[in-house]
Write a structure and sequence with these properties.
Length: 277
């Protein structure tokens, strides 16, 4: 079942910039999707359409079978289903204390105080930020702010979580922690959509990948099918995952044949062991 769908959407900013040029995108319930694209491709602009922050110039966005209703109550409904973690946590954190920022969404939903407290506690625990409740968000490091921003959305328990470059600016451990958390949420049934230009990470989590370039979707499919079209990937100013690039060099320059390029260390290990055997 398609839980979210963008149908032929275009978006032109008030200054005339055509940021989206006829995008078709969908996520099935329970999928984990990567939206891969270089800087300025339109990733953030597309995401801002998913919970009605932006309204398409043409086309429509359908969430859970219903076209977004842009009235106040319609937007409040869609925002309970679709939570967006912004690229820059400073756009999301404004309270004097971490706990207040995380409580903001659940309080707005009119939940009782003990339920709000439970959600704040559990969300901060899940992102590894328990103990930071009383800290002012503007004193946190970039990585810590990012985790709190994720906790703010988690606390609303959305069906679909949309994250704009969730691992950028995190150290390797912080990035794997966040990916592990996203896998757990996805295993529990949440639909997850992540924008990124990190091609090395993408095959580690994505069931399906969309490549966006210059406001258009130029490729879509499993990580293997998307990265097998090297020209399209490179044409969008992206590259192959490093491990696939190494295998490409071995195949082309050293004539060692592996078949399909492995995209992760695990896949490369299996292929190399088979060959060495
Ligand atoms: N508020 C705005 N007004 C005018 N143009 C904008 C605005 N925000 C973004 N744009 C333009 O729209 C296009 C798409 O930008 P967007 O931020 O969606 O790209 P992105 O893929 O998220 O990039 P990045 O990876 O750098 O975050 C770019 O050309 C950008 O300059």
């Amino acid at each position: 079942m398609r839980i979210i769908e963008a149908v032929d959407i275009t978006y032109t900013y008030p200054d005339g910039t055509e940021a989206l040029r006829g995008i078709n995108f969908h996520a099935e319930k329970g999928e984990m999707i990567a939206l891969l694209g270089p800087n300025g491709a339109g990733k953030s602009t597309l995401f801002l359409h998913f919970n009605g922050i932006l309204r398409p110039t043409s086309g429509k966005v359908v969430v859970d079978g219903e076209e977004i209703d842009y009235s106040k109550s319609g937007l409040s409904r869609v925002r309970q289903k679709v939570g967006i973690v912004f690229q820059n946590p400073d756009d999301q954190l404004f309270a004097p204390r971490v706990a207040e920022d995380v409580a903001f969404g659940p309080l707005n939903m009119g939940l009782p105080e003990d339920e709000v407290e439970r959600r704040v506690r559990e969300s901060l625990e899940r992102v590894g930020m328990a103990g930071y409740e009383d800290r002012p968000p503007h004193h946190l490091s970039g990585g810590e702010k990012k985790r709190v921003a994720i906790a703010c959305i988690l606390a609303m328990e959305p069906e679909i979580m949309v994250l704009d470059e969730p691992t950028s600016g995190l150290d390797p451990r912080g990035a794997s922690q966040i990916l592990r958390l996203l896998h757990e949420l996805n295993d529990a049934g949440m639909t997850i959509i992540i924008s990124t230009h990190d091609v090395d990470m993408t095959p580690l989590y994505a069931d399906r990948v969309y490549v966006i370039s210059n406001g258009e979707i130029i490729s879509e499919g499993t990580p293997h099918s998307v990265f097998s079209d090297i020209e399209t990937v490179r044409g969008a100013d992206l590259r192959l995952p490093r491990i696939a690039h190494l295998i490409e060099i071995l195949q082309k320059e050293d004539d060692i044949q592996f078949g399909d390029y492995p995209l992760t260390i695990g896949e490369a290990r299996r292929k190399l062991r088979e060959r060495l055997r």
